Amino acid sequence: MSFSADSPFAQAVMVSPNRGARVGGDLDTLILHYTGMPTAQGALERLCDPAAEVSAHYFVFEDGRIVQMVPEADRAWHAGAATWAGSRDINSRSIGIEIAHPGHAGGLPPYPEAQIAAVTRLARDIVFRRAIPSPRVLAHSDVAPARKEDPGEGFPWERLARAGVGHWVPPAPMRDGRFFAMGDTGQPVEALQAMLALYGYEQPVTGQFDEAMRAVVTAFQRHFRPARIDGVADASTITTLRDLIAAQPA
Ligand SMILES: [Zn+2]
């Protein structure tokens, strides 16, 4: 059954059957994705195919056209197994935007200008209408670091933040200094884990820099310090995280 678009920026509705009722009362998160498929049309068809069992609320074409697939009141199936700030049913509390883009597998080309302008307008509309706190505008990779890398390090988070969408601070300059990497253990690793968890990442405080922690650090770098994405918690990465926590809105 069709429905009217929730956002004035959606030019069309194409109904996806892949949806259900939200569980719980909070709708406080916006998740951005890339489709990771060679063509926009193929991705849109998949998001509306009952056999695929995936969907999102909105779809943004390369040229900036926006299609709504699931009413905002409903739970779309975009985040999968995901966690943020202790919540595990991210689909119930979020709105998902799929951005047509071939992804890492397709060589991570730059996002077209018209597409970014459209994503910015749409995201701005959603966060203002739904009063979504800026630190809860997240990448799929933030909420599922071990499984996902979208929308990728080429996504212009800084530009969205300048438009009032999302939480962002200038990345600390790359410089020498103490760093932590796979295999490291001890109190400083624990302290860094506690900071990642405080910001919202699913990061147990174990004192062991293991594979799961490397994935979390990598996800953090993709979003907040994209100059080098290697899963090594260097001084710039740690300072950027500290600055972000300090700049969190009350
Ligand atoms: Zn995704």
Structural overview:
The chain has 250 residues and is α/β, with parallel strands linked by helices. It folds into two domains: 12-157, Peptidoglycan recognition protein-like (Lysozyme-like, 3-Layer(aba) Sandwich), CATH 3.40.80; 187-246, Orthogonal Bundle (Muramoyl-pentapeptide Carboxypeptidase, domain 1), CATH 1.10.101. It has helices at 40-47, 90-93, 113-130, 140-143, 157-162, 187-199, 211-224, 235-246; strands at residues 12-13, 19-21, 29-34, 58-60, 66-68, 74-76, 94-99, 137-139. It has a six-stranded mixed β-sheet with strand order 1-5-4-7-3-8. The chain has a two-stranded antiparallel sheet with strand order 2-6. Helix 6 (187-199) packs across helix 8. The radius of gyration is 18 Å and the shape is globular. The site of zinc ion (ZN) has 4 residues, from loops.
Secondary structure topology:
Elements lengths: L11 E2 L5 E3 L7 E6 L5 H8 L10 E3 L5 E3 L5 E3 L13 H4 E6 L13 H18 L6 E3 H4 L13 H6 L24 H13 L11 H14 L10 H12 L4
Helix pairs in contact: 6-8
